[in-house]
């Protein structure tokens, strides 16, 4: 198969590209390198540019016979989306509309879309199924949900099949330790905690210890990036085989508190890791844990790296190899 990976130089995208290459699939990447790094996909055929740019999209679709698209290209910072919503509507919605336009024009029938647990927002239930009411609380979650709906309409009008994968907390790094999570402006818990272990930060702030959880800190469902990537390949095969579209949660189905993550990181790194309780961060729900039953049943997807210490170990290996990230 020839697969176009949009946003393939980003964190999850680069693991996707690696997995496809390991399985001997033909991979084409488009990435505008706004947050991604070409160094993370050194062996892939890369078009540097934006999916909203019709000239580069024309080149990609005329120069390659694409069988399926795996679509990551998007802005993905919750807080930034609240501060600058139009950036998200423009890049995420307009970007995907352009991509779908090209898929329709060139007869590409399958798309896997990188969606998010943020579509659920502050949910009333703690174990979230795909039936749980959506209630996005940021333009980020809102645009991802709107894209799911856009794909549904495009699917009925033009016979395209789509799979939306709603990720919970993506984390970890490839077993080689050569690609991993590397951002200029880091906000995610595990990389920040490990930066403290590495001596690059003095302490980790724990955002709130008065939540309605066992130790008062927020609970999240941490899912390894390789398991995430694997689900995308299964989704392409599932769509091709059954000629169906679908929406699936991707998580381990098990929650860990912020305090537990800090404790596991201390164990894995053998560093003290200074942690201080800070005030709550706006918009953080108490507990977000996925039901992953549907993905297991339909896609036959089973997460493999499920132990939290193994997940943290993989991130730690990458961080030791690249203490300054990919270096721009
Ligand atoms: N946290 C801290 N200190 C920090 C950073 C994070 O205590 O310095 C806490 C947060 O309050 C939260 C937990 O650690 O309780 C995890 O926070 P992350 O920022 O790592 O991840 P989020 O759960 O906020 O976000 C993730 C994805 C988003 C997605 C969201 C859906 O990264 O893309 O889940 O709810 F939108």
Quick overview of this protein structure:
The chain has 10 helices and 15 strands. The protein is of the alpha/beta class.
Describe the protein in words.
With 328 residues, the protein is α/β, with parallel strands linked by helices. The protein is built from ten helices and 15 strands. The protein has helices at 11-22, 54-63, 78-83, 85-105, 139-158, 189-197, 225-242, 258-269, 293-299, 308-321; strands at 2-6, 26-31, 45-48, 68-71, 110-116, 127-128, 161-167, 169-171, 204-207, 219-220, 222-224, 246-250, 256-257, 275-278, 287-290. The strands form four sheets. Strands 3-2-1-4-5-7-12 form a seven-stranded parallel sheet, with helices on both faces. Strands 6-15-10-13 form a four-stranded mixed sheet. Helix 1 links the parallel strand 1 and strand 2. Helix 2 (54-63) runs parallel beside helix 4 (85-105), helix 4 runs parallel beside helix 5 and helix 8 (258-269) crosses helix 10 (308-321). The longest helix is centred in the N-terminal third of the chain and has 21 residues, at 85-105. It is globular, with a radius of gyration of 19 Å. The two termini are 31 Å apart. The mean pLDDT is 95. Bound molecules: uridine-5'-diphosphate-4-deoxy-4-fluoro-alpha-D-galactose. Uridine-5'-diphosphate-4-deoxy-4-fluoro-alpha-D-galactose is lined by residues 76, 78, 116-118, 169, 187-189, 192, 204-207, 218, 220, 258, 281, 284, 288. Uridine-5'-diphosphate-4-deoxy-4-fluoro-alpha-D-galactose binds at residues 76, 78, 116-118, 169, 187-189, 192, 204-207, 218, 220, 258, 281, 284, 288.
């Amino acid at each position: 198969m020839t697969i176009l990976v949009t946003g393939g130089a980003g964190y999850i995208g680069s693991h996707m590209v690696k997995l496809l290459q390991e399985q001997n699939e033909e991979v084409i990447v488009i990435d505008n390198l706004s947050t991604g790094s070409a160094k993370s996909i050194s062996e892939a055929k890369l078009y540097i540019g934006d999916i909203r740019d019709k000239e580069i999209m024309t080149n990609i679709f005329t120069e390659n016979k694409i069988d399926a698209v795996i679509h990551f290209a998007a802005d993905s910072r919750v807080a930034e989306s609240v501060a600058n919503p139009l950036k998200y509507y423009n890049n995420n919605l307009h970007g995907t509309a352009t991509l779908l336009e090209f898929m329709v024009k060139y007869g590409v029938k399958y798309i896997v879309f990188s969606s998010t647990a943020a579509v659920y927002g502050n949910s009333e239930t703690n174990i979230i199924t795909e039936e749980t009411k959506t209630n996005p609380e940021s333009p980020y979650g809102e645009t991802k949900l709107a894209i799911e709906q856009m794909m549904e309409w495009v699917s009925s009008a033009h016979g395209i099949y789509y799979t939306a994968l709603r990720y919970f907390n993506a984390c970890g790094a490839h077993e080689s330790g050569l690609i991993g999570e590397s951002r200029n402006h880091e906000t995610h818990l595990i990389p920040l905690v490990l930066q403290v272990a590495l001596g690059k930060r003095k302490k980790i702030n724990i955002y709130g210890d008065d939540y309605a959880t066992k130790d008062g800190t927020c609970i999240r469902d941490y899912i390894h990036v390789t398991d995430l990537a694997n689900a995308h390949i299964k989704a392409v095969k599932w769509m091709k085989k059954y000629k169906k579209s679908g929406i699936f949660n991707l998580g381990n189905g098990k929650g860990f508190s912020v305090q537990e993550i800090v404790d596991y990181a201390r164990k894995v790194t053998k560093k003290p890791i200074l942690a201080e309780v800070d005030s709550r961060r706006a918009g953080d729900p108490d507990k977000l844990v996925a039901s992953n039953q549907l993905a297991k049943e339909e896609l036959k997807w089973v997460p493999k790296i499920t132990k939290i210490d193994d997940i943290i170990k993989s991130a730690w290996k990458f961080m030791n190899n690249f203490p300054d990230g990919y270096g721009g």
